[in-house]
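User: Protein folding is very new to me. Would you mind checking the protein record under this note? It all follows right here:
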Amino acid sequence: PGTDALCVFTCLWAQVMILQVVKLSITASKVASSYLWPALMASACLLGVALPGRGWVTVYLNVVSVLALWFTGSQSNHVFLDIVVCLAVLLTFSRDRGRWEAQVTYAIRSFLVALYLVTALHKMNTDWDEPSQSCCTLMLGGVLALPPLRSLLPALPGVARAPALATLAEL
């Protein structure tokens, strides 16, 4: 099959979901019986990168992603966003690839419009600019607390400016 928007999406989504594989692998290293999810996610991600133009690969990647996120993900808005994107891909499925692409494009575009409207409304909340309350400060702290980045945490004085930097980046 040729390269179309679904092919590009599948390849990029597989790369995004590789972050879930890393997170699940870190968690699995603490519990020996929990290697199932990282292995399933890794297989789906590898297929998504290797064969992104195959419809069954797109379906497999999104089914595994929804299940892994549902059963292992945190209750954060980022996990919710990932689940909604996966469900949009799965619920708009059509054997006619052109139709599937049009339907999923419309569904994800509609979701993103709603998401950005809610995000803009949320940024009007006075807690957004307060580093001790802002979710972006918590997320940045969580990322920087990961073992490979932990040594950077004390060296970054700008953590308190995370809300302003996040707003600037989103504009």
User: Anything to note?
Assistant: The radius of gyration is 18 Å.
